[in-house]
Design a protein that fits this description.
The strands form 2 sheets. This protein has a 9-stranded mixed β-sheet with strand order 1-2-10-11-9-8-5-6-7. A two-stranded antiparallel sheet has the order 3-4. It is built from 10 helices and 11 strands. The chain has 2 domains: 30 residues; 252 residues, 3-Layer(aba) Sandwich (Rossmann fold). The protein is α/β, with parallel strands linked by helices. The termini are far apart. The radius of gyration is 19 Å and the shape is globular. The structure holds S-adenosylmethionine (SAM).
Length: 286
């Protein structure tokens, strides 16, 4: 009896996750730059202490009547990832755009291509002999971008930045953030722009787990970058639920966190709700 109940629950969970994956694929396939432009042109943030705050109840994706997020699939974090991609990357007309660490996620790529831009991607999990070229994907990573100087109008990375310097990441050895940002600057044209997002209180390099915004902000050398803008999505999550880090994610924390005291870590572990940080910046000296 107990076994049958368990099996039934597994089948329902399996069907639910298959359905979610179909909805996600359909969403990415049909993403419309025009619809995104209509939804995101009016300012959607409130300035708070030099950071743009996108509280859930003020987010254009929030469904007021049903009091839930209008993105119908994914974790609370992924819903913010989708919303912020639409807000930032819907207009890439005539732009040459490079994505770092694209994995298997196609929303940004589809929006860029559909709005008239050229998408190119590099990913360290691809075979090393798969060389990327403009308009196509291939092997590469943020520390070594296999393109000429000033090749791109925009470079971006979705849920990847936090892994570049992570101790336990397995695809490549931990990279130095200053080297990566210098390398991105090199392949950007003058006045080219950068867009990054990363989860806070989740995983990756310890500064992202701890939500150390001054340290993250300090990565952007003023000699290389201007107009550095940070946004926090879901930091103010009410009336939506909190999103505490899962037990699996918490297991990685002791390995990554070595520069913060135990009390600080314990406080974050006890109280944290995961939120999304986005960073936009422009290459200086254009
Ligand atoms: C959590 S996955 C996110 C994948 C995809 N962008 C998404 O949003 O679903 C992190 C990605 O970053 C890539 N990655 C890790 N370190 C990287 C680096 N130094 N440079 C570029 N990509 C990197 C990984 O291979 C992986 O595809």
């Amino acid at each position: 009896m107990c076994g049958a109940f368990f099996l039934q629950k597994c089948m329902i969970a399996g069907m639910h996750s298959k359905l979610q994956s179909i909805v996600k694929r359909w969403y990415c396939l049909t993403a419309s730059p025009g619809a995104a432009k209509r939804q995101w042109t009016t300012p959607y943030w409130l300035d708070m202490d030099g950071i743009r705050d996108i509280a859930c109840h003020r987010c254009p994706k929030f469904n007021e009547n049903r009091q839930l997020c209008g993105v119908s699939f994914g974790t609370p974090l992924r819903k913010c990832v989708i919303a912020s991609i639409e807000a930032h990357l819907h207009d890439s007309r005539h732009l040459n755009v490079l994505e770092l660490g694209f994995g298997r996620f196609t929303l940004a790529r589809n929006l860029i291509r559909r709005s008239g831009g050229t998408w190119t991607g590099i990913e360290p999990r691809l075979p090393r002999n798969q060389r990327p070229r403009i308009g196509h994907a291939g092997y590469g990573h943020a520390g070594e971008i296999p393109f000429e100087n000033a090749s791109f109008d925009r470079v971006f990375a979705i849920q990847s930045f936090e892994h570049w310097g992570q101790k336990a990441y397995t695809a490549i050895k931990p990279l130095d953030y200053a080297d990566c940002l210098r390398e991105i600057c090199r392949v950007l044209k003058p006045d080219g722009t950068l867009y990054l997002d990363a989860p806070i209180h989740f995983h990756g390099h310890e500064m992202f787990i701890m939500g150390d915004l001054p340290k993250i902000r300090a990565l952007f050398d003023p000699g290389e970058w201007t107009d550095v803008i940070m946004e926090r999505w879901r930091f103010n999550h009410q009336p939506l639920e909190a999103y505490p880090p899962s037990a699996k994610v918490l297991e990685e924390w002791p390995l990554e966190i070595t520069s913060y005291n135990d009390e600080e870590v314990e406080r974050i572990r006890r109280d944290a709700s995961v939120w999304l940080l986005t960073i936009s910046a422009t290459k200086s000296g254009g």
